[in-house]
UniProtKB/TrEMBL annotation:
BP terms from Gene Ontology: sulfur compound metabolic process
Cofactors demanded by this protein: Mo-molybdopterin
Oxidoreductase is among the record's keywords: yes
Keyword annotations from UniProtKB, A to Z: Metal-binding, Molybdenum, Oxidoreductase
Domain annotation Moybdenum cofactor oxidoreductase dimerisation: ranges: 341-462
UniProt organism field: Colletotrichum sojae
InterPro entries given in the database record: Ig_E-set, MoCF_OxRdtse_dimer, Mopterin_OxRdtase_euk, OxRdtase_Mopterin-bd_dom, OxRdtase_Mopterin-bd_sf
Protein name as catalogued: Nadh-cytochrome b5
Domain Oxidoreductase molybdopterin-binding: 136-314
Any one GO CC term of the record: mitochondrion
Gene Ontology MF term list: heme binding; molybdenum ion binding; molybdopterin cofactor binding; sulfite oxidase activity
UniProt lineage: Eukaryota, Fungi, Dikarya, Ascomycota, Pezizomycotina
One Pfam family here: Oxidored_molyb
Amino acid sequence: MAPAEPHARPFVAKGEIPHFEEERDGWKGYVEWEKYPEKKRKVEKIMSRYDFPDPPQFQLGPLPDTNPILTGERWKQYHQACGLGHIPEVSWVIVQKEKAEDMIHVLQFPYNGEPSRKRLVETEITNNKDHFVRNHGGVPEIDADKYTLDIAGLVNDPKRLTLQDLKTKFPHQTNTVTIQCSGTRRIEQIREYPGDGDELINAPWGEGAIGTARWTGVSLKKVIKYCGGLREGAGHLEFYGADTYFKKGKVYNYVVSVPWRKVKANEVLLAWDMNGEPLPRIHGFPLRVVVFGYIGARSVKWLYEVRAIRTESAAPVQRKEYLYYTPQVGKQNARYSNGFSIQEMPVSSAIMAPRDGDQIVHDGRVALRGWAYSGGGHWPVRVEVSADGGSVWYEVPWERMSRKYFHAWRLWEAELPVDAEGWLEFCVRTWDNAMNTQPTYVRSAWNWDLHVTSSAHRIKVYSINRSRPETAARLKQLEDRGIPVVPITHPIEFDLESDEEYERNMEAQGGRDPEE
């Protein structure tokens, strides 16, 4: 495990550490909380005895130069206090086994990680090892042969189905779907306008909390039909995940819901394959939900129950998390009821190469690469890039964009004409098929919970244009002397011009001072 966050005190047990039985044989790391109110009350009493570490105050200073960036000590100690201290260790082992070696571990536990920026946009379909992960608890280890899924609540014929039932009783469906965390690009809000710290930690995501896969499974609509359809009054489907989740000193399983109309549109998949392979454990093996066009938080992993209910779920992840507030709402006045629930993802995009802060030597054109996405069944139709902060925009040629999908991103490439030198602000914006586009500045997208950074993505790049004669001459001087051009902060270890050149140039300019 990574070293603890510097502010964190070591965990010290207060009283006897409890033991909660795992609910099912072959389901390691799964404790059922929702069916047992007495267990929930016991945990609440246990949690009240502890003074857990404060969440790290990373928003008001530079991020730690470590990987993992944050370790999640508070969340680990929640698990230790409840006798689940082995779960963070097991989850980290799975991360190291299943994810790419160069993943950016934004939060070690519960695991939040994004891939190499450059590699993310090299392929239209994201490699499983590179697909981002946003977990809310530990990773259960479930034996596929002992897996069952309950279809319950307001259905006419409730059933318990095995994984084999799902694979043999229903037609298989494969869809190309982008999943995006609502926290994608959160670091841009944090850098300019910090917001809610949140006990789970509003992780400082960059541009990589998005990925696209070919998901295979069965449409939930067909499963509900197999169970006799919905009873009168049912309007939402609630999904139960086997991971343990904490909120305000209480314990839960991870539970969210989506409206029946989303299921009825064949836009909710119960998936067992990811890019032609069984789901990795970190991504929900053996079965997960994939909700097309919604925030990733609705695509529940390690699914063990689907319950038909009348209204949206009252579980805390649905009711108390993933809320979008106006800029006038903050710590001083936020309530759960004055933020709206985030479901469909808005149009967004990002420049993945070059990177913010890069210093580039070029010949008057700079190559850019990135992604563009819009949720809710919309798709990007136009991507525009600018080298002057958004005054002049250039359209990315359609030939330089990947194919269109109803529920997936488009990758794009562009060569931007750049004559100017020095620090420039490159930016990108996207238009979707419904004429939606992005706010111009991050200030327009700021909200207290720091979700959905949908503004035009901006990076600062230092431009060195060698098509300019003076620049070409200086680059030759540096090359001849073996002095690097980049970083620009490396000093030039020779005179910028000779005394003779200086005097000649000053004479041509009429000197430094006026003559009268």
